[in-house]
C-alpha cells in the first residue's frame, strides 16, 4: 500500500485543539465572562471540525492509494476444505507449479525424485519418475510444455519438456544450467519462479544466506550466457522470514509471493522488497486450524486460487477474496 501521511497543518489542528481544551479545563470557570466562555467554545468547535475533516481527507487518500496499488491481497484468502492428502507422494513433497495449458498442477518430490500431475481439486492424474536428478527442490512451468526443475545440491535448473505422452524424464536429456552460487550444504535453493514477460527466473536460497536471485537468459534454449542479480538483500530486509521455502511470481501485479516454513507465512512483496500483503499459515481467520506443517511450495492458477504444498504430502487450496485481483496499470 502507498504511504499517506498527515500534513503539517493537519497535525497542528489536532495539537492545537488538545492544548486549547487542556487550557480551558485549567481555567477557573467562575472568573470567565460569558463572552470569554463562548469564544473558547467556538474556537474549540472550529479546531475539532478541522481535525475531523483532515482525518476524512486522509482516509479518502489512503483508500484511493490502495485502489491504485496492484495487489494479490493475501490477507483476504481463505482455506477451501481440508488439506488434500496426495497418496502418490508418500513424503518429501518439495515444489508445485500450475500449467494453464493443461489447467493442472505439477508437484515435485525429492528422494525419490518424481513429478505428479494433479487436477485443481488435488486428484492425481499421473506420476512421472525422474532419473539421474539430484535433490529436486522446485518446479516451475515456463510455457509451451516446458518446465524448469530446480536442484539444490548442484545449484542448477534442468529444462525439460512434459507432454501428455511423457512417462519419465532423464536428466541427461534436459538442458542443464548451473549457477556459480555458493552456500552451505542443505541450506541452498528452495524455490523457483518464472516471469513470462522477460523470460527470467527468480530463485530463493533457504538460509545462510537468505537470498533472492534474478536470473536472466537461463531459460532461452539459444542463449549462451546468462546474468544473475539480487533485487534486494533478504539478509537486511527479510520481510520477517527466518527461512525461505517457496516462491511464485504473479504476472498480473509483477509481485513475488514468498513462502516461509519456519515463519508460517506467505508474503507478497514488490521487486523493491516492499511488503504488500501477508497470509499467516496458522491463522484461524483464513481457516487454518492447526497451521501448515513444513510448507514447501506455492503456486497460483488463472482464477487466483492459491495452492500450497506441504511436506510430507498435503495440498492446501485457498480461495481469493471476493474482490478480483487488480491488474497492473488498471
TrEMBL record:
Keyword Transmembrane assigned: yes
Annotated GO CC locations: plasma membrane
Location in or out of the cell: Cell membrane
Membrane-traversing stretches: 39-58
Keywords assigned: Cell membrane, Membrane, Transmembrane, Transmembrane helix
Main subcellular location: membrane
Any single Pfam family the record assigns to this protein: SdiA-regulated
InterPro entries named in the record: YjiK/CarP
Domain of life: Bacteria
Protein name, per record: SdiA-regulated-like protein
Taxonomic path: Bacteria, Pseudomonadati, Pseudomonadota, Gammaproteobacteria, Cellvibrionales
Amino acid at each position: 500500500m502507498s504511504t499517506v501521511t498527515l500534513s503539517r497543518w493537519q497535525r497542528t489542528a489536532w495539537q492545537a485543539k488538545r492544548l486549547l481544551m487542556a487550557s480551558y479545563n485549567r481555567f477557573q470557570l467562575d472568573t470567565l465572562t460569558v463572552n470569554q466562555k463562548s469564544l473558547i467554545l467556538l474556537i474549540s468547535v472550529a479546531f475539532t471540525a478541522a481535525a475531523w475533516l483532515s482525518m476524512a481527507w486522509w482516509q479518502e487518500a489512503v483508500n484511493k492509494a490502495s485502489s491504485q496499488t496492484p495487489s494479490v491481497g493475501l490477507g483476504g484468502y481463505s482455506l477451501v476444505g481440508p488439506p488434500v492428502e496426495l497418496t502418490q507422494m508418500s513424503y518429501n513433497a518439495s515444489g508445485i507449479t500450475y500449467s494453464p495449458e493443461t489447467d493442472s498442477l505439477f508437484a515435485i518430490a525429492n528422494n525419490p525424485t518424481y513429478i505428479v500431475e494433479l487436477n485443481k481439486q488435488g486428484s492425481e492424474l499421473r506420476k512421472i519418475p525422474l532419473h539421474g536428478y539430484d535433490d529436486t527442490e522446485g518446479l516451475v512451468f515456463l510455457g509451451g510444455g516446458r518446465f524448469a526443475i530446480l536442484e539444490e545440491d548442484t545449484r542448477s535448473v534442468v529444462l525439460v519438456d512434459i507432454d501428455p505422452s511423457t512417462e519419465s524424464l532423464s536428466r541427461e536429456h534436459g538442458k542443464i544450467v548451473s549457477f556459480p552460487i555458493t552456500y552451505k550444504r542443505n541450506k541452498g535453493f528452495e524455490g523457483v519462479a518464472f516471469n513470462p514477460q522477460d523470460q527470467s527466473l527468480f530463485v530463493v536460497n533457504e538460509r545462510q544466506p537468505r537470498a533472492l536471485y534474478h536470473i536472466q537468459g537461463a531459460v532461452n534454449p539459444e542463449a549462451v550466457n546468462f546474468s544473475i542479480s539480487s533485487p534486494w538483500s533478504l539478509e537486511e530486509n527479510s520481510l520477517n522470514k527466518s527461512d525461505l521455502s517457496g516462491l511464485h511470481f504473479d504476472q498480473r501485479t509483477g509481485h513475488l509471493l514468498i513462502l516461509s516454513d519456519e515463519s508460517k507465512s506467505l508474503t507478497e512483496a514488490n521487486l523493491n522488497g516492499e511488503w504488500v500483503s501477508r497470509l499467516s499459515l496458522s491463522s484461524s481467520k483464513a481457516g487454518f486450524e492447526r497451521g501448515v506443517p513444513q510448507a514447501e511450495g506455492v503456486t497460483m492458477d488463472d482464477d487466483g486460487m492459491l495452492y500450497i504444498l506441504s511436506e510430507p504430502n498435503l495440498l492446501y487450496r485457498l480461495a481469493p477474496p471476493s474482490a478480483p485481483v487488480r491488474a497492473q496499470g488498471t
